[in-house]
From TrEMBL:
Catalytic activity: L-glutamyl-tRNA(Gln) + L-glutamine + ATP + H2O = L-glutaminyl-tRNA(Gln) + L-glutamate + ADP + phosphate + H(+)
Quaternary structure and partners: Heterotrimer of A, B and C subunits.
Family: Belongs to the amidase family. GatA subfamily.
Keywords: ATP-binding, Ligase, Nucleotide-binding, Protein biosynthesis
InterPro entries (alphabetical): Amidase, Amidase_CS, Amidase_dom, AS_sf, GatA
Domain of life according to the entry: Bacteria
HAMAP family xrefs: GatA
Listed name of the protein: Glutamyl-tRNA(Gln) amidotransferase subunit A
Function (record text): Allows the formation of correctly charged Gln-tRNA(Gln) through the transamidation of misacylated Glu-tRNA(Gln) in organisms which lack glutaminyl-tRNA synthetase. The reaction takes place in the presence of glutamine and ATP through an activated gamma-phospho-Glu-tRNA(Gln).
Catalytic residues in the record: 52 (charge relay system), 130 (charge relay system), 154 (acyl-ester intermediate)
Primary enzyme class: ligase
EC number: 6.3.5.7
Residues of the Amidase domain: 1-453
Amino acid sequence: TQHFLARIRQHEGLGAFLATNADVSLAQAKAADARLAAGERTPLLGVPLAHKDVFVTRDFVTTAGSKMLENYRSPFDATVVSKLGVTNGAGMVTLGKLNCDEFAMGSGNENSAYKPVQNPWDLSRIPGGSSGGSATAVAARLAPAATGTDTGGSIRQPASMSSLTGIKPTYGRCSRYGMVAFASSLDQAGPMARSALDCALLLSSMAGPDLDRDSTSLDMPATDYATDLIATSAQGTLASGLKGLRIGLPKQFFSSGCAPDVLTAVRAALAELEKLGAVLVEVDLPLTELSIPVYYVIAPAEASSNLSRYDGVRYGHRASAYTDLNDMYKKSRSEGFGDEATRRIMIGTYVLSHGYYDAYYLKAQKIRRLIAEDFQKAFAQCDIIAGPVSPTVAWKIGEKGDDPVANYLADIYTLSSSLAGLPGMSVPAGFGAHGMPVGLQLIGNYFKEAQLLGTAHQFQ
Ligand code: GLN
């Protein structure tokens, strides 16, 4: 813990952390020591980690990257935080809270109300987003692991751009209780770490039902993903473990929309998987392109509803001067929300409004269903779907300027599986243009996290 706290201080300029509290972290480390002294031997006991700042924490301020929640202190810990934590959980020590796009809305961490995050592979570039602080913290070794959230790619894309392994489990696998809500039908928590094995250890502790607090959490017991992985390696199946695994390559993921350097790295990774025994088959996900407009109707719709709770009354920013209640709402919200959050509130309110609901929101929901059905057709032909995570390597900070659509388009390969609620992960696949990391995306059918982690582990 001391080692990582020192590194965090040393590399503050990367912008990865929004809050630290050495006293709290060291006290947690002592508590882990006490459990160790009492004879406990569990794999995560005493291991430090840091949380994306959308998980509420009692001991650290939670801002969700927004001025709206500046200095906000939650009276409770998110379920994922307590499941990993030292009091009643796996025994991990919290190093602090990680920078992210405001309310997790973004693809480059440039929408954080506080500061951008630098990618340690090239300080002039984004680390990916919205879990950009998580990516940089782990990639720069400021933390051994981090939590992230993925609504439309925010674990997989930053993992890919920072050469990390990250997994977004099946929707509902981890409790959303205490995750600052963005788009509730899509939001999902997951780990970001250096390997599939580390992710397996973390996910085993993060996952599991929490039905009293999150009615959408899956009523399925948590799986011990890590023991399975260790068992397969110990049996010496590293070379033969993927024998017969059918990997589906959606032709829409390998089109001209993807940069050639990314495609080259992804194809090289697929060739490795083939050497390990996997069989590559072509599959069809014809609605891939529609996932962008569909997601950017549904996610803002849900966001506009979720963000209505920030009214300056109960918590969050309140304007200092106002004439009446309505003026207080207006000023507090205008001052508290940044441009991207405001844009999504406006789009979301529009597509949900009377007269437009059927044309936009309902239509998007119907296409969402068709996208999910296409995945099931594809899974009739393969076990896992693979492709790129992002069409390009990490771009330069500021390069996309104020163009929101340029950011939205970069989500093309991650949105469809999110809309379908499927698990997906990113595994380092090598390097592309400018020596920047490229990730291989693996998408599994529902509840197939173990298969994804196992495949990634064999590959690593
Ligand atoms: N880039 C997507 C968005 O801006 C996804 C973000 C996320 O997964 N939190 O909404």
